[in-house]
């Protein structure tokens, strides 16, 4: 009988053993000290641990398994009791944690400068999961009046009806109103968007965070409109959520979201008995995670071009006499604020979305029809962050969940055309198409 070769006993968590083998030869050493340039989100991404493929490939492998083995039966009990877990690369089931999704999550944490992150099946999954983790039945949220329509509906209709969680909506620019709305001992979360959808109002994150923390309130910020442009946690926020379907994806082909925050929060959301990410099941497909992980590294380059074109177009539209809204314009009421909080010194600009207020829905629709069907400037479609320009009349589309009074309070004009500026074609070519449409509106 042939002699059986002796093999070392692997680590009780099979995945940890594979990870050690994988990185022994390939892992790059980390710098001993941090440099000042790490304030640039792109620099932080470059320092994030690179995930190599199973056989040393430069791209990570997709872990498609829904369930994972252990080398010792006792390990399974420890995992279900919380003694072993993702920190030690011990995996149970992909609804709980998946290695490929975790690799993308580490990129997102680096991007936002947080201790941890976890990626979800959609942006709304990220928003609802984090709010339900932080706010119990009977709890209270203070939120900006101007939010994405789906988030507004979640706060104003779903959470009160299903979870007994109420929300007070405020003018996020009126800090006195914000402070008065936070109820001692009851308000758990202050929620707002970095750059509001669709009005492009900019939140004073440092001051709002200071006010909230004085009252023991957690600050949750939706940074979907401004990845790379603004870093909310570095300005005092506690949690950042994203609809990664937008700028982070860039291809209008993936639905995804992310929650970025402390390890304590992320781990609590994955708790087997109390965690919303575990129990509600907003699971990201690992194939989606792998694809997104290949887009995050060039997000900075894409954002710079989105923002550059948006600023040029906004200035030229204004010169034609139209009412244009863009934080990069010097007469925008939040221009000074965004200059003080944005990563403008690294060339990320003021965002890739601008608005033209056509005053009425009829005029808004006429403009969009001209720009899509006649001058070929862009496409009439919701969403943003695509390489093609996307246009929608917010009041009758992505903000349609708000009633007429709520839209007025939020500052959403019936004729507000939201334009997510793409980068297909040359700048001058696209400006010519936009200009022809605008000039036709004057006839």
TrEMBL record:
Coiled coil segments of this chain: none
Gene3D superfamilies in UniProt: Aspartate Aminotransferase, domain 1, Type I PLP-dependent aspartate aminotransferase-like (Major domain)
Sorted UniProt keywords: Pyridoxal phosphate
Gene Ontology molecular functions: carbon-sulfur lyase activity; pyridoxal phosphate binding
Residues found modified as N6-(pyridoxal phosphate)lysine: 246
GO biological process: transsulfuration
Domain of life: Eukaryota
Gene Ontology CC: cytoplasm
Pfam family, one: Cys_Met_Meta_PP
The keyword Nucleotidyltransferase is annotated on this UniProt entry: no
Cofactor: pyridoxal 5'-phosphate
PANTHER family: CYSTATHIONINE GAMMA-LYASE, TRANS-SULFURATION ENZYME FAMILY MEMBER
Family per record: Belongs to the trans-sulfuration enzymes family.
Official protein name in the record: Methionine gamma-lyase
Species, as recorded: Momordica charantia
Gene symbol of the encoding locus: LOC111026086
